Amino acid sequence: EMSPEEIAFQERIDRNEKIEPKEWMPEGYRKTLIRQIGQHAHSEIVGQLPEGNWITRAPTLERKQILLAKVQDEAGHGLYLYCAAETLGVSRDELLERLHSGDMKYSSIFNYPTLTWADMGAVGWLVDGAAIMNQVPLQRTSYGPYSRAMIRICKEESFHQRQGYAIMMKMANGTPAQKKMAQDALNRLWYPSLMMFGPSDKDSVHSAQSMAWKIKMNTNDELRQKFVDQTVPQAEYLGLTVPDPDLKWNEEKGGYDFTEPDWDEFYQVLKGNGPCNKERLGARVKAWEDGAWYREAMTAHAKKKAARRSA
Ligand code: FAQ
Fold first, then answer.
1. Is the CB of 35 under 6 A from ligand 1?
2. What is the ipTM for the molecules in this complex?
3. 30: β partners
4. Can you give the pTM of this predicted structure?
5. Which Gene3D superfamilies does this chain map to (predicted)?
6. CB 280 less than 6 A from any atom of ligand 1
């Protein structure tokens, strides 16, 4: 049974009106947004780590500048998204506390290691590629601040995807050893990228309600299919092989048939048992603890200034 407020709210959503921070919303809508936007913000911040790993080892000065800029963009995306979440009445401190305690998630993809320079190409191409596939529709999401953050983030994200593909082109058309590195990166990152879209629709807990509220615009499987259809020709252009022997064009459906990710592995990663979960969360907790003196100094300074003003 929906209350009169809930019915009126759903009608606004159905008319594609944006919901703004101070307006009435169902508690479930607020909670789902905090979960999704917060998780997305954490993903951007934790997502800096696998690429940060290669900044000191970028092969040229130009590549190093580009990678630095990309990783800084991710910090910016995290900050917009934390701001969007804060408009829902949760503090940034609380969100970080919930990340550090393991209560909130970040994207499974960032629990995989980046072993070679070719991984910087594959991350940009596949991980940012998957991120855009998910985020372009979210530009039309029903919550105003989230939708506006997405518009800005998508512009930068598509540049990131192109820079990743440019690295892949260089590697795939380089020496046999470089091409082998590119293929190896694709082999390792293909399925983790497909997992970014979430569990298959039959196991997705939140999709139905989130789609009714237009917090989500597509199902997980719809976006995963679009991603495969877009990416396979890009792999072919590189002369690389997607690591799925059963991948096959299906004329009737106008898309590829492909092997699903290993969902046991996915749920293990979500439970904290992926190859890098401990390292990633450990790095974030350490950064937070190492910054304590700075936060304390800023607070003391602000207090002193306020006291002087009132004196
Ligand atoms: N990883 O019922 P559903 C980036 C959880 S892009 C971890 O289907 P929902 C940019 C899910 O939370 C990556 N957990 O869930 C970048 C739920 O558990 P809960 C970030 C996952 O929310 C690129 C449970 O499984 N993008 O960072 C994952 O309706 C390169 C059941 O699943 C976004 O966050 C997963 N992959 O759909 C940065 C986009 N999938 O919370 C650096 C916004 C599912 O009940 C370098 N988010 N779970 O405990 C979304 O669109 C949605 O949240 C989905 C999941 C599609 C991810």
1. yes
2. 0.97
3. none
4. 0.96
5. 1.20.1260.10
6. no
